[in-house]
Specification:
homodimer; alpha+beta; Alpha-Beta Plaits; ten-stranded mixed beta sheet; 5 helices; about 20% helix; globular; TruA/RsuA/RluB/E/F_N (chains A, B); tRNA processing (chains A, B); PsdUridine_synth_TruA (chains A, B); tRNA pseudouridine(38-40) synthase activity (chains A, B); tRNA pseudouridine synthase A (chains A, B)
Chain lengths: ~250, ~250
């Protein structure tokens, strides 16, 4: 029995999220289906670094699984990609220590959120960016973002239907970069609560558009109340960009 | 009655091409359906600059139609976009001379073809580029392309199932540009035969990969035989980029 770690990417458009759900197409079920094919029908359980929601994309999701098959890693990659639909790709496969755990061993995660800033919508971007055609005060957004960096109780930035008790997380970095008509926000932290990145983006948009003041971030954090923060930005602008197992250093 | 000219873009992925076909989703039928909605169920015929095939995209397709409704052009754009699915967008609407004809008045057209050159496929590019993960000799491709520029009988680069008799066309320009992992080929000409751009791309790829010599373009043209040229490159890498009604000047 060997433990394998895979880095996978997926276009979230056609998935009801990562996690298995009855009668829905999910990333996990497609992956487990491909593995089942390779193991003569035996179910092989996959563990991911975390879930992603419907329409959310991934460039660097990480999963692990155990298998008795002795196939070289390049063979695993080829075999899995030949069995997977073309909106999921295995980018790499490596043999890891049997103690490695794709979820418990995560040291940091990087998410990106892409905003399409042009006044005109773009048919080619509609599933891959959130169209936000209004002017934004980037300086105010950066000021607000700086107040979120660090270790805080992010209750106000967490969907209320979560089961997690401890809502203290550390954000190491929030970066904003304009590329042509896109504004790309990067978030690196030791962990993110349910919908946390999307709620932060929604709140930063309210700051950028003047509906909220940047300095309000402090009182929103302190209030520990979801209703104080902004709307949850749509899933299709969000990318699980990278998962770090060795910690994150700027 | 007024004649309107619209520039439209569409993501070809979910369409069985531009032209109406029974029981298939096409760009024309979606556009005519939206217009019918605005005209109390009356059918409004749309004329395009030309057809595009299944999975082929458009950034600057041009159509015209006649309507008795007196709506300002911005109102037309808004109304049509609110009635259209989000993979078709009306980019602009203008009132034109009643003699304007979206097809007969075309002076030149520009197509682009996008190749994804990375060894690894990309889930986000799979519907928008043709994945070609092999090394290409760009100089040989440029040499071959130069032999196609000018006025020629393009019978060898035309799908055999066409009904067009006169296969003489003028290509003004073929350009190749490397952008990160993409190679983008641009084609401007006074008109293109059925599948002509895709067959030229397929043939240029055979030159770039060493299967054909660049100088063979001359004999392929002279042979007037489809079987002499290369394979038809897939539709999903192709974009109708712009339609010129005033002629084209470099």
């Amino acid at each position: 029995m060997r433990r394998y770690k895979c880095i996978i990417s997926y276009d979230g458009t056609q998935f009801s999220g990562y996690q298995v759900q009855p009668n829905k197409r999910t990333v996990q079920s497609d992956l487990e289906h491909a593995l089942q094919n390779m193991h003569k029908g035996e179910h092989i359980k996959i563990v991911a670094s975390g879930r992603t929601d419907a329409t959310v994309h991934a460039l660097g999701q990480v999963v692990h699984f155990d298998s008795p098959l002795s196939i070289p890693v390049e063979g695993w990659k080829k075999a899995l990609n030949s069995l997977l639909p073309d909106d999921i790709r295995v980018r790499s496969v490596e043999i890891v220590d049997p103690e490695f755990h794709a979820r418990f061993d995560v040291k940091a995660k990087e998410y990106r959120y892409r905003l399409w800033m042009s006044e005109e919508p773009c048919v080619f971007k509609r599933q891959y960016t959130h169209h936000y055609p209004y002017p934004l005060n980037l300086n105010a957004m950066k000021e607000a973002a700086a107040l979120l960096v660090g270790t805080h109780d992010f209750t106000s930035f967490c969907a209320s239907k979560t089961e997690v008790q401890d809502k203290v997380r550390t954000i190491y970095l929030i970066k904003m970069e304009k590329q042509d008509n896109e504004l790309i926000l990067s978030f690196i932290g030791n962990g993110f609560l349910y919908n946390m990145v999307r709620i932060i983006v929604g709140t930063l948009l309210e700051v950028g558009s003047g509906q909220k003041e940047a300095k309000m971030m402090t009182s929103i954090l302190a209030g520990k109340d979801r209703s104080l923060a902004g709307k949850t930005a749509p899933g299709h602008g969000l990318y699980l960009y990278q998962v770090y197992y060795e910690g994150w250093q700027e």
